[in-house]
Amino acid sequence: MIGLDFFLDRFGVFLSVLFVFIGLMSFIYALATIKQKGHRLEFYLMLLLIVGSGVGVALSYNLLLMFILWEISTFAIWRAVGFYRKEENIYAANFTFLINFAAAAIMLVGLVMLYLDNGTFNFFEIKIYNDLAAVLILIGILAKSVTIPLHIWLVPAYKSIPASIGGCLAGVAENIGVILFLRLFTTGNYFAPEFFNTVAWLAIASCIIGGGAALISNDLRDFLAFSTISQIGFILLGFAVGGTYGIIGGMLYILAHGLAKAGLFYGVGLIEDATGKSDLNAIGGMLKWSPVLGVSMAFLAGSIVGFFPLVGFWSKLAVIIGAVSNSAYFGIGAIVAALFTLLYNLRFYTKLFFGQNTGKVKSLSYVGLTVVFILALLSLLFGIFIYQPVDYLTANGGLL
Amino acid sequence: MSITILGVEFEIYYLILLLPVVCGLLGYLINRLRSEFNFLGFILTLFFTIKIFIATRTGVITEIPTTMFGIDFRFYMDSLAGFILLFNAIFAFLVWLYCLKSMSKKPGERVYHLYIALTLAAANGVVITGNLIFLLIFWNVLVFTLYGILLVGKKDSSFAARKAVTIIGVSDFLMMLGIVILFVKVGNINIPADPKLLLNGPWMITAYILIMIGAIAKAGAIPLHTWIPEAAKVVPASTMAFIPASLDKLIGIYLLVRISYFFFDITGSVHLRILLMIIGSVTIIAAVAMAMIQKEAMRLLSFHAVSQVGYMVLGIGTGIPIGIAGGLFHMLNHSIYKACLFLSAGSVEYRARTTDLDRLGGLATKMPITLFTFLIAAFAISGVPPLNGFFSKWMVYQGIIEFGKVSNLWPIFLIAAMFGSILTLASFLKITHSLFLGERPKELNKVREARFEMVVPALILALLCIIFGVFAYKVPLRHLIYSALPFSIVESGFWMPSLATVLIIIGILVGLIIFLFGTAAKPRRSRVFIGGEILDEEAARITGPNFYSSVNELGMLKKTFEFGEGGAFDFYNHFLGIMRGLAVVFKDVINSLIVAVYEYIGKLIKALGSLLSALHTGELYNYVGWIFLGGIILMLLLVL
User: Fold this and answer.
1) Would you place residue B540 in the very low, low, confident or very high pLDDT band (cuts 50, 70, 90)?
2) Distance in angstroms (rounded) separating the CA atoms of residues B166 and B71
3) Among B115, B150, B177, B580, which would you mutate to test the A interface (most chain A Cβ atoms within 10 Å of its Cβ)?
4) How far is B34 from chain A (nearest CA, A)?
5) Using an 8 Å Cβ cutoff, are B427 and B524 in contact?
6) Which one has a higher pLDDT value, A396 or B355?
7) What is the ipTM of this complex?
8) Does position B121 have pLDDT exceeding 60, yes or no?
9) What is the largest CA-CA distance in chain A?
10) Closest partner CB to B180 (pick from A302, A331, A386)
11) CB distance B177–A340 less than 8 Å?
């Protein structure tokens, strides 16, 4: 029923490398920026658990094993969100944990139903005939991958989490939901067009509503949270529409979004540390403070918008091709979401880096800046040398 | 077509992409040698584009595509691409030459030259690609370079840059959707499509319209133009001359011609042609009307940069060969004279330190060469024969008249085009007067002619205006325009530019003789006085804008102009308003509703918990009662 059921395929390796890399960046950034004396060891343990469970989910073929790793991830997020131990942090942590846990419990029922139908947890051998089981599992996925209507834990969680582990949360932990979706549903175990269409519309709704909310958010963390909700929607859209373009687009999107959102999170963290504020209207003129940070953040935000020399362009293009191949209406929805993405990123960037700053600004952490710069550079390099990851993912049908 | 440098074989079309980037980056990194590297980059790019231009006159350059992801990445250059590449390089070189001095010691100078080089590379990329998705890549790079170059401003230009990127970015995404729809429906979309795609079915028409939006937004047609006047207030003249005046027109109209006559063939669809012509006519009239009331030189010119796009779109929309050729020719002419106008006005600004028309005047004797270049370009844009602007407008008119065979709407378009031309002339009389004629304010007495490097580009462009007008048939039309289009062009109408030139020169000479020997040369000068009080000269000075103040106080028009200046017709404001409104609905209604549902569930669970905890109060009576109740139920069950 359960053992150490791991396997290597190209998708898994691709994701593991990405997750470990983002974890490493988080680690370096945390070393430079976490000033708190107490329970630092717990912090690094939770960081490792998040990365480890992400890698585990990416490489496992046993649904029960996946579920256990999933719960470890939930546990680690719970501790990480409550890291600062203030009352609102603890509230946010409990909120996060409860929603994730409740959804995971519902998912477990679905998994058990699948087991009873098929007699195995190995998703290569599972065929899904039971629609109820699919819907129950979907609830768990939506909660973990912050899709409407189970996205609401992300806003309080982002508000209270330290920036260093927030990058990991955005780049690693939230992806494991969509990975399960890819492994279990997209790869042909389940034949139900209505199910996939519903998920695609949910994903588009998530993109658009998240994007709209990010457009009028005035708090940096709120902005990041809604932006993540909107971008994860694109990944789920890619996997829901399926096909080569959808799946490869979703994988590239995980790459693009992981790098860019982690980078933005660290950049925002640096600015928050230096100014002591997180109100978008109160901060400004940061381009003069650190031009390197400004250029790096321009690349990262551009990658999220999807402009060419950055990897975000390719992922967005592939997802939209996949969506239009399925139905042109999906394409229109995705483009509306992309317009929101453009608007909120421009607003965010203009407000943060131009205009006038009020109040004192402390000095910059150069280690943190280096991390942001590396992530921006990688976004640029993958954008130009896109052939390598695409070739890696598409060769041999994705198997090693 | 390849060339061997240091034992490495390069394809020439890679070089025109790489050279500007490499030289620009080297110049940026090694600041001391910036001018040398940039010069090398621009002049070599110009050299190679000339080679490509010559090669494309006899055949097409293409290569076997590299396929990734099912997309063919291929290059394709025909004679249309060849001449656009040539002018890309010419404009970039001239603007670079100009801003050697105009930008020197200004903030952001170093990065500015890099952006010019990158913009040139991206614009070249747009033109040489033979696949629409590949084209989209370079189109996207242009957004980045546009953002960067607009941020180098005279003052804080972040708002203008944000506005520009919003408008161009939105149209880019719409264009992306159009291209993707085409890609999904017909597979790889290579240039030129063979056979041409049919405009059948709603999705194909949607795709055409979406790509067209991208093209005309780049060119700057209404309603996607509003970033241009916004930017004119805050960025240097060289930026305006380079991006909205020349390069954007070249590649925007290039794409419009490509999709209209090389992919699809819109001659078969009268509705689409009329749609394009309506966009063109509205653009001409609305923008030129706004130009009339401007009091700032750059902003006035920027509205003309929008208005003239109307003629191009109108000409291309006719679907008549002569009209299309006219639209394409007008694009070329417009790039030349509008760049010249911006550069000349920039020279005035460089010396006089202002572009406020109320505070300028009488610079004719101080800046004679700038006067000459400005005047030539102003006559060209107003359509005064024998300059180039007249010629292309005339071809567009012919196209519209011939369009009469297809639709009865043609008189409207013709009137719009001609009326626009008259208003253009009127507003250029105003700006020429305001800058160079009339009384000179005292503070401008020390103004000199602009620097050599700034005068030369404007002079070259002015000469091009004359050559392209006087020798219109022999030079530009035969070698650039007609060969670029996929159909033969029948010239109706009768116009001999050389003869006309001779006649006009004779006319001017006669006028000069009358002026010199008549009484007009000796005006009577006296002081102005009111009620016996002699006014000082400053107060009595009448500036150019004063002549036209009656226009914006014309009853109905007044309100319209006020709305226009207030941004009531601004696509950006409306678009942002709609998106913000939606965002409020999403965040404060839908999102809050979902949160409220969760809170309600939380409360429900709490209530349930307190209900259950009521069972365990710790009081003995309660438990006895429960035991008693349970016993009764058990007994009932056993009995029944």
Assistant:
1) low
2) 28
3) B177
4) 21
5) no
6) B355
7) 0.92
8) yes
9) 64
10) A331
11) no
DSSP labels for B577-603? HHHHHHHHIIIIIIIHHHHHHHHHHHH
Q: Residues A302, A308: contact at Cβ < 8 Å? A: no
The pLDDT, as a whole number, for residue A59 is 92
Tokens 């599972």 locate to A126
B177–A149 CB contact, under 8 Å? no
Q: What does the alpha-carbon distance between residue A338 and residue A1 come to, in Å, rounded to a whole number?
A: 43
Q: Which amino acid does the sequence have at B31?
A: N
Residue from B579, B593, B599 to probe the interface with A (highest A Cβ count within 10 Å): B579
pLDDT band at B83 (very low <50, low <70, confident <90, very high): confident
Residue ranges of the alpha helices (H) in B103-223?
Answer: 109-128, 132-151, 158-186, 202-219
Q: Which residue has the tokens 């035969």?
A: B478
Q: What is the pLDDT averaged over residues B139-152?
A: 90
| Interchain contact A340–B (C-beta under 8 A) | yes
The answer to whether A294 and A287 have CB atoms below 8 angstroms apart is yes
- Which residues have CB under 8 Å from A321's CB, separation 6+? A245, A249, B180, B183, B184
The per-residue pLDDT for range A157-202, each reduced to its tens digit, is 999 998 888 889 988 999 999 999 998 888 877 888 899 999 999 9
- Please report the DSSP string for B322-368 in residue order: HHHHHHHHHHHHHHHHHHHHHHHHHHHHHHHS--BGGG----TTT-H
Give dist(CA A198, CA A204) in Å, integer: 10
DSSP 3-state assignment of B201?
coil
Over the stretch A240-298, which tens digit does the pLDDT of each residue have?
Answer: 998 888 999 999 999 999 999 999 999 999 998 888 888 888 888 888 888 899 999 99
pLDDT digits (tens, 9 = 90+) for B254-279: 999 988 888 888 888 888 888 889 99
* Confidence tier at B478 by pLDDT (50, 70, 90): confident
* Per-domain residue ranges of chain A: 10-393
Integer angstrom CA distances of residue A244 from A325, A329, A398, B5 = 10, 19, 11, 41
> In terms of CA atoms, which chain B residue is nearest residue A154?
B595
- Pick the closest to residue B562 from B290, B231, B321 (CA basis): B290
Q: Which residues of B touch A325 (CB under 8 A)?
A: 184
